[in-house]
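Team,

Forwarding the record for the chain on the shared tracking sheet. I've put the sequence and predicted structure together so nobody has to dig through attachments.
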Amino acid sequence: MFELIKNGGWLMLPLILCSIVAMGIICERFWSLRRNQIIPPHLVPHIWKLSQDNSLTDSTLHNLKSDSPLGVILAAGLYNRNHGREIMKTSIEEAGRQVVHELERFLNTLGTIASVTPLLGLLGTVVGMIKVFSAIMAQGGMSNPAILAGGISEALMTTAAGLSVAIPSLIFHRYFERLIDEYVLKMEEESLKLVDIIHGDRENEDEFSS
């Protein structure tokens, strides 16, 4: 492995660094974007029960806000539940934008790695080919085809390394984007349920307990 890295030249160093960063981001996002952590099940029915018991105190809302991203959104609406439906929805939307921004943390970096690493690999190949042809010119011609074949093989090493980093980075970047979109839709649905519950637009708990 060390020989492969050595043969690829100095551009293998940023490619290795990019691979480490990408792997760290992927692992961190898998851990942070667990569904039960983002959208705890039965959170809205629990809030309904607290509302029925007149237990929606500031302390309860603070705990709700620190519980999950969905809790942050719902707590923002509940803080303004006495100011009318539109004010409540506006506060939920504002909190939702902040939550989505937090969910998308590091995804720009992962997307940048997916875009940049193939270019770094291509640059390494171009630099390697320049060295190969410079060596041929210095020898006055291609007297030894093995030298040319070996040089080209080494030059292509960075391209292979760049693609090896870019392909999984791109796959996981698209996967996390899709996952976040699903979470956003679900949180929007739960938030609308909450607004309807607080303002009496749902007649019974069975309608939203699923």
